[in-house]
Amino acid sequence: MSDATRTAWRLAWRNVWRNPRRTLITCAAIALGMLAMLLMQGLVRGMGARLVETLTDSWLADGHIMAEGYRAAPDVEIRIPDGDALLARVRATPGVRAASGRALGPGMVAIGDRSAAVQVVGVDFEAERGVTTWEDGLVAGAWPTDDRDVLVGHDLADELDLEVGGPLVLTAAHVVTGELDSVRLRVAGLLRVGDPRLDRAAAIVPLARARAVLGLGDGLHAVAVRVDDPAVLESLGGPGLEVAPWRTLAPVVEQMENLQGVSFGMMLGIVGVILALGILNTLTMALIDRLPEFGILRALGTRPGRLVQMILFEALHLGLVGVALGLLLTAPIYAWAATSGIPMPGVEMGGVEFTHPLRADLEWGEVLGLAASMVALTVAVAGITAARAARVRPVDALRRSS
Amino acid sequence: MSVVSLRGATRYYETKAGIVRALDGVTFDIDRGDFMVVAGPSGSGKTTLVNLIGALDKPTSGVVSIDGRSLADLDGKALADLRRDRIGFVFQAYNLVPVLTAIENVEYVMLLQGVPAAERRSRAAEMLGEVGLGDLLDRRPDALSGGQQQRVAVARALVARPALVLADEPTANLDSAASEALMDLMATLNERHRTTFVFCTHDPALMARARRLMRLRDGRVESDERIAR
Ligand SMILES: Nc1ncnc2c1ncn2[C@@H]1O[C@H](COP(=O)(O)OP(=O)(O)O)[C@@H](O)[C@H]1O
Ligand SMILES: [Mg+2]
Question: For atom 3 of ligand 1, which residue has the closest CA?
């Protein structure tokens, strides 16, 4: 760096603080813009993460193995015939952390004269612990241990006025004979996981019980698996089977992400334009004030390029100060939004209810990326001003001063 | 050889009201060591003339050459370099860069010339000493009086040893005592360094100091006389 460049750098820094009020206003605009964008981005990401977490923890796990065709048209007859053998093979596969077989079918629950249509969900309660977080979602009662126990969602319990420990009659049709069979069960616990399919319309019973009423033998409809690495999923397939990662099972996530991408991009654009106009305005005002000074510098033999450099340095300082201010401002608010989170009772997204506070979630790359773009934006806008300043003839700039 | 030569130098301005003949066919030479006052009423073309002599502007027609080089042949960058290396300026007001200290202002032109830092510093300090500001090196312009600011400007104009120092109404914003002192200073420096000075004024007290007095009227040279002192 030449002496003249070093001096331009120093001169720029002093010029930034020549009008502290103007500088602080510009920097505050940059800082607030950053705060808005980072929080928005953090919350949007947190929301997405929450959605994914709810969907995967409450039902999808990392993926499902199903009989071919079941995903497209879930019919109780389309099942994995030798489910227990598959389950054993999956559990023995390296990289599989946990697997739980599920038997699913239509049914009805009734108590007194109240009844509701449900999905019968037969699971191995021990195995399910490794795959979903239902146990954390128990709002009353206990984890089932008896083969007559049933877990129901809290919404269904409200609807039917069910009580923990109280009776419930489950009715389902046998797959082969079509005969209806009813069993009397005991409500072991009430569940609240945020997914209405479980909270509102499911009766979760021991696997053997579901297989019996539905007449499935040792068949299964899905094996939910947890894996160390998504790539492991692919190795779990076989003839007549389809392996679907959670993303495939919940297309709503991708739709949501795309939508968020678009709306965030738009917001970024709008905030960017507002900021750019604000910065341009202050810089232009500063430029007009300092025209005589630029005239002097030019008269003394400063080349136009050097003048441009000085103004760009000034913008760089301004941008850096603004970004530093923005980070200082954002840090505590983000820390709060990321740890305590914002409670969102009753808010739903993609059919999933926010049972937990919404926590902001940001990556360092994003923060740095945004910071860099703010600085770049400031310098770019200053470029317009700088080009104009460099074109001013020293004679004209000087004439205005006298 | 003369430092500056003008041959039929003309500068017209195009305005909405029509063409203004600010300088209308001026021919003369400025010689090394001249201590020249350009006098004339407001609007007579003094600033226009100084801008041409200082390579800040080009003539509409006619020839202006500095060190034998015609301005018409030089582009913006070459003109900037010519000003940097050959000409010192003292303007009427806002002469100094506000965020630079007195000594930094004086160093600035040498900085552009690429003079090494240590030499810059010592030459600037010495020059400020010569204009009587040896104690105020690190003051910013807003902490200096008007007269002191103009002295800093004089120091800056002289420090790079230009062929020519141009001053456009340098005393316009000063009281008469400060004006006198500034003129004394420039006269002394002219004698000591044989630096060529050209300044514009319409103040009769300053005209009385000239060793060459040129009067302008309506963009033409009315008179040009050398005065022995
Ligand atoms: N940039 C310009 N555009 C139009 N007219 C100008 C411009 N500069 C100077 N003039 C006119 O040219 C004439 C000479 O101006 P100037 O050289 O500033 O005179 P002085 O310095 O003696 O007062 C005046 O009539 C002035 O109005
Ligand atoms: Mg004038």
Answer: B13
